[in-house]
Design goal:
α7 crosses α8. The N terminus is likely disordered. The chain has a 5-stranded mixed β-sheet. Strands 1-2 form a two-stranded antiparallel ribbon. The chain has 8 helices and 7 strands, in the order αβαβαααβαβαβββα. By secondary structure, it is of the alpha/beta class. A hairpin with a 5-residue loop joins β6 and β7.
Length: 259
């Protein structure tokens, strides 16, 4: 019985379709058939490859599989591979970890101001989730805690927050706090969630926020169902506007306010 990736590779090789090969001279069923093939009257017939030849081909295909690709560094060390080969796998694994670390460089919500908006959001070059909040408002506090949990879990996403009061945002309706703006890597608005009612009101959880972001393909979730579904009659799904993916209450773009 084969197990794991090694087993899958062996099974793939074992399941090769048995090829056919041309019938050699002298192996035709009749002398007339030999002469007709020799004279170009008919094409040389083919038959299934013999067992011995097929088994040899199968072994050649198996020999092409590098089973070390499916093993961890610890397994390779246990097998006492040549030092130069082991070093090659170490370097490859380190490069993978470095690449992963570069992608997971965020993890918290960073406060920004109006003057930092262009650099931190529009020109960030990554997906950015921005919370527009009002200090002291319970809705904002609840949603910020949920966003902080998601930020810590999915460190490839950049999270920022900006106060709706003061000089940071002009013309922003305070009744829309908290609002979550989602920007793509080009700095364009992908979506926005206006007020905490866009999630689940004061019953909003980090899982609900994660589910909504997964629907936008911002992250991969292990959640199998909307966390709100087990709360019957407690959540009314909001109406979506004619614009795909928008959750705006009174507008269809971010141009209702200025940063």
């Amino acid at each position: 019985m084969f197990h794991g990736s090694r087993g899958a590779a062996l099974m793939a090789a074992a399941e090769l379709d048995r090829p056919t090969v041309p019938v050699m001279d002298g192996e035709m069923e009749t002398c007339m058939e030999d002469k007709m093939v020799e004279g170009g009257v008919i094409e040389r017939p083919e038959v299934a490859m013999k067992d011995d030849d097929f088994h040899m081909l199968l072994q050649e295909e198996r020999d092409k599989i590098d089973f070390n690709e499916f093993k961890s560094i610890e397994q390779l060390e246990d097998e006492q591979l040549a030092e130069d080969q082991l070093e090659m796998y170490r370097r490859k694994r380190i490069a993978e970890l470095i690449q992963q670390k570069k992608a997971e460089k965020f993890g918290t919500i960073v406060e920004i101001t109006e003057t930092e908006f262009e650099k931190e959001v529009k020109e960030a070059g990554v997906f950015v989730i921005m919370l527009i909040y009002r200090p002291g408002l319970e809705d904002c506090t609840v949603l910020e805690k949920c966003l902080a949990a998601v930020a810590a879990k999915f460190r490839h996403l950049k999270f920022v927050k900006i106060m709706a009061t003061g000089r940071n945002i002009k013309n922003f309706p305070l009744t829309h706090c908290p609002t979550v703006m989602v920007y793509n890597s080009e700095g364009g608005v992908m979506d926005q969630f206006v007020t905490i009612a866009s999630f689940h009101g004061l019953k909003t959880t980090a899982d609900i926020v994660e589910w909504e972001f997964a629907k936008l393909q911002l992250l991969d979730t292990e959640l199998e169902d909307d966390p709100r579904n087990d709360k019957k009659n407690q959540f009314k799904i909001r109406q979506q506007s004619k614009y795909v993916g928008s959750r705006h209450q009174d507008s269809d773009s971010e141009e209702d306010f200025d940063l």
